[in-house]
């Protein structure tokens, strides 16, 4: 479901077939953002490795905080594909619909609890005005308990979603409600 050719799961062989089989075994299916990489399995594997590291690796940022960053960055980039995918994942961690709505719209972020507010507002600034970042921006993160490693992780998650948003938007990757839901727990 994109503007370029993709290899279907049933037609994949070699390295691509192996990657697809591992994804189906671990997640239950292959997302459209990964299928769009099917013409370049090596890039797909590297993309997966980066995703697993920044989203599931050891970090002082919680899974909810990383998913919130994904949603806010994607909302700022008008990437409906990633907003919907990661809002669905975030629903596992945040049960408050008002908070989810604020994150999905990237509006009213200053009203969130201080730690989450500072994290997502930093990600928003890094996304929308990267050249305006200053060292003093890090002080606000440290004030809510982030270590330098956490700040690095925040920057990596933000950069990763800016990267992925451009793949999704640049190649017309679409989502459906069925595609967004029903993944096995990661």
Description of the molecule:
This protein is mostly helical. The protein folds into two domains: about 10-55; about 65-170, AhpD-like (Up-down Bundle), CATH 1.20.1290. About 65% of the residues lie in helices and about 0% in strands. The chain contains ten helices and no strands. The protein has helices spanning about 15-25, 30-35, 40-55, 65-75, 80-90, 95-105, 115-130, 135-145, 150-170, 175-180. Helix 7 packs across helix 9 (about 150-170). The longest helix has 24 residues, at about 150-170. The model has no long low-confidence stretch (mean pLDDT about 95).
Indicate the topology:
Elements: H1 14-27, H2 32-35, H3 41-56, H4 63-76, H5 80-90, H6 97-105, H7 114-128, H8 135-143, H9 148-171, H10 177-180
Give the CATH H-level superfamily of the largest domain.
AhpD-like
Low-confidence stretches: none
Number of strands: 0
Separate helix tally: 10
Helix content: 55-70%
Q: What characterizes the major β-sheet?
A: none
Question: Key terms for this structure?
Answer:
single chain; 186 residues; mainly alpha; AhpD-like; 2 domains; 65% helix; globular
In short:
This protein has 186 residues and is mainly alpha-helical. It contains ten helices and no strands. The longest helix has 24 residues, at 148-171.
């Amino acid at each position: 479901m994109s503007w370029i050719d993709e290899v279907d799961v049933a037609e994949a062989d070699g390295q691509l077939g192996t990657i697809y089989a591992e994804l189906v075994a671990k997640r239950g299916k292959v997302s459209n953002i990964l299928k769009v990489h099917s013409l370049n399995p090596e890039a797909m594997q590297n993309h997966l490795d980066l995703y697993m590291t920044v989203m599931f690796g050891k970090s002082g940022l919680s899974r909810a905080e990383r998913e919130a960053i994904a949603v806010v960055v994607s909302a700022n980039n008008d990437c409906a594909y990633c907003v919907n995918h990661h809002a669905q994942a975030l629903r596992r961690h945040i049960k408050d619909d008002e908070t989810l709505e604020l994150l999905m719209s990237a509006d009213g972020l200053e009203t969130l609890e201080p730690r989450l507010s500072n994290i997502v507002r930093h990600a928003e600034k890094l996304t929308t005005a990267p050249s305006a970042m200053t060292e003093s921006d890090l002080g606000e993160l440290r004030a809510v308990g982030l270590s330098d490693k956490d700040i690095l992780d925040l920057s990596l998650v933000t950069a990763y979603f800016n990267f992925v948003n451009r793949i999704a938007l640049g190649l017309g990757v679409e989502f459906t409600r069925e595609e967004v839901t029903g993944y096995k727990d990661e």
